[in-house]
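Record 1 of the preview.
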Amino acid sequence: MGDVEVTREFIARINAGDVDGLGRLMTVDHQLIVFDEAPVVGRDANIEAWHGYASSWPEYLIYPHEIVERDGVVAVVGHTTGSHLGLPDEEESLLTLIWVAEIVDGLVRTWQLEPDDREHRAAHGLSA
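->
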């Protein structure tokens, strides 16, 4: 499975609320990096965090708009619904984010959320 396919499967596991399947796609040293939070480091810590998130927000879904592989990472721009933001889906769907996946040997080492802005889009080769 190529890096884009691994990233798509990672998103599919998130969307299905399949935390165990998500964990099987993580490296042991997996990191979740969100631009406005402290990083979560290690597969076990991330599985625990995802279990909490999935149980608190079971309707959480990621909707990719564009996926680009460049410079050893896969960047995804898209929107979510059902997240911790607590917004109606119509409002939340207007807020876009960038997720960046570093894939190593078919597993996700880093899952990083970045603001969707011109600078981050350009850095990852995403359309403006």
